[in-house]
Specification:
This protein has 17 helices and 3 strands. The protein is mainly alpha-helical. A 3-stranded antiparallel sheet has the order 1-3-2, sandwiched between helices. Helix 7 packs antiparallel against helix 8, helix 7 crosses helix 14 and helix 15 packs across helix 16. It has a domain of about 180 residues: MetI-like (MetI-like fold).
């Protein structure tokens, strides 16, 4: 078992490297998205040089005047760079580095400072950037700065402060949907084709069919805005509460997102348990257990339920990863500052936050792959006859 675990863990890192390499190259062939404000853009350009993704060249006033770019124009250096001036300067670099992206800035914000220098920034080739990016990640765990969500702040800091919210909401959701799903599934299997079973199937079919954002918007309307039951105030907060809100309000703020995320999971798990357990109750081993004197409940608990859970438990483990990946819409609608909402913010607009996206991709990819290992190993926990990694004899 331990050998199998380490073999799978090695493949996790191999797949993760392949995913991140492909994602990095695809992001880098897109147009760069630096901050738009001059001061933030200057800081970003300097950070790119520090990370090894760009080269910086300083052009003095003399170099600009002495025939390299312009001749005998004393007013050029004291003015902002026009489009014509940019094209003339950039053409010198594109002549021999046509695949480079070039940016410009001044080392002094004062237009009247005649001694200020022009700074030219050139992106180095993608694969060279990739090598330096891997080195920064491995040696310093530096994924680069955010360029949109929290400008020039480390991408790891941006996502790390939002990840606990996502983990908290989805962990509570998982702890609610698993026992309730098992409970209703067992009841429906025992009372198959009864009125109770039919009602539960119809209700849960509705929950499965409704998209999550529709459910949470209905819950927000019913419990967060309308005054139900003649109350003078809503039962639950309409939006996620800030860190300085009262403790009671912060606790109540979990109800709407947790309910909206768990309803679909409870419905799906109920149907799966019902199907597996209904089939298990008709098997010969259950009938044999009954003839040996076991009660119906004992036969279900000791035999039918355990066998029925064998194909279901791995799905329960992986459902947590699915919740993490699919909670972005819920977080966006309810205003939860979680990792899913950060991902949507990073990918929206004309200036994607590529560094945050890379870290987010790495984090969720590793979590999904690692949970895949636990999912496979869980088979042997439920059914000892299954030996993971055993050789064929």
């Amino acid at each position: 078992m331990l050998r199998y675990f380490f073999q799978r863990l090695m493949w996790v890192f191999i797949v993760l490297v392949a995913v991140l390499t492909t994602t990095y190259v695809l992001y880098k062939i897109q147009p760069s998205s630096p901050p738009t404000r001059p001061a933030e853009k200057a800081t970003w350009l300097k950070s790119q040089v520090g990370l090894g993704f760009m080269e910086e060249e300083i052009l003095t006033r003399g170099e600009i005047y002495e025939g390299k770019f312009f001749k005998n124009d004393e007013n050029i250096f004291g003015q902002k760079i026009t489009r014509e001036m940019q094209e003339a300067i950039y053409a010198n670099y594109k002549y021999y580095k046509i695949d480079y992206t070039i940016w410009s800035d001044y080392d002094s914000p004062s237009v009247t400072n005649m001694n200020r220098r022009l700074l030219i920034y050139r992106e180095i080739p993608i694969m060279v950037q990739y090598g330096k990016w891997v080195k920064n990640v491995v040696t310093k765990f530096d994924w680069g700065p955010s360029t949109n969500i929290s400008i020039n702040e480390k991408a790891t800091t941006v996502l790390n402060r939002s990840f606990p919210y996502t983990i908290g909401v989805n962990l509570i959701t998982t702890l609610i949907e698993i026992p309730l799903g098992l409970f209703f599934g067992i009841l429906c299997a025992i009372k198959k084709d009864s009125i109770f079973d039919n009602i539960i199937n119809v209700v849960f079919m509705v929950f499965i069919s409704l998209p999550g954002f529709v459910v949470i918007m209905l819950l927000m309307k019913w419990f967060g805005s309308d005054h139900l039951f003649g109350l003078s105030h809503p039962l639950l907060p309409y939006q996620w509460q800030s860190s300085d809100a009262p403790t009671k309000q912060k606790i109540l703020a979990y109800f709407i997102p947790v309910i909206s995320l768990s309803l679909g999971g409870i419905a799906g798990l109920t149907r799966s348990v019902r199907a597996e357990l209904s089939e298990g109750l008709t098997q010969d081993y259950v009938l044999l257990a009954r003839t040996k004197g076991l009660s119906k409940q004992q036969a279900i608990n000791r035999h039918a339920l355990r066998i029925a859970l064998t194909p279901l438990l791995p799905g329960l483990i992986f459902s947590f990863a699915a919740l993490l990946g699919g909670a972005g819409i819920t977080e966006q609608v309810y205003g939860i500052p979680g990792a899913g909402r950060v991902f949507l913010q990073a990918i929206q607009g004309s200036q994607p936050d590529y560094n945050v996206l890379m870290y987010d991709t790495a984090l969720f990819s590793f979590l999904g792959l690692f949970l895949g290992i636990l999912m496979d190993m869980s088979y042997s926990i439920i059914d000892p006859r299954i030996r993971m990694g055993a050789k064929n004899e």
